[in-house]
């Protein structure tokens, strides 16, 4: 029996290593506060709680439809949901810490339609998603949507950006790999990857309280994969700087993580600025500015 188990285990490991990688790097919506969250945007009213049990259903078979409510559940407390808004015609993420609910897909779509907070709007974030977008079912990794009237208004470019917001937001959940709109073929993140800016910042988010050293994460497609970061205080004075390299450089997008130390005399507003240094003239280009609260050491 042992002789049979060894090759079987090796086969399982090999199969896992050959499985296709899921598009994007977002995992499930975690339960509890964000690692850098503190003074986050004021939560909006959550979607009505579902009446289905909070425990997960068994894995779906090819002919089984999984109800919407149990796609990701929280055990009380709070849940962190990432929302993909729009800035300058491109996708831009932010996070919300909200009361936990089993209906996270419904919660995410409600927040997406409600739009950015005042702080997020001041940072240039907007939404193209109207109220009333609903997930009819989630089956075989595909979320089927029932768009409200007017969802297809505004021209092809506006509709595509609207759909991209929904797709990138819903596919953060492990039960959703693609989204089907009104009976159309399912689409995923790769179908809208061209709507990402050169630099995406996934953390920290607008309004987060951060401490030194602050971890800055995201993805980028920049010259020689070099991503630069600086921390500015309330007077726009540079109080910290660093750089890192993304996992992939020019011509491809890669994830990055940079750690930046800063020093301020008192806790107060500040800005995390992520950018690319122009190979032509050394100027800062593709700048993404994230307003945060800088916590002074020992506070």
From TrEMBL:
The keyword Signal applies. Residues 26-74 are annotated as: Disordered. Residues 1-21 form the signal peptide. Residues 27-54 have a biased composition (Low complexity). Keywords: Signal. Pfam families: Germane, Gmad2. Residues 105-191 form the GerMN domain. This is Gmad2 immunoglobulin-like domain-containing protein. It comes from Micromonospora sicca.
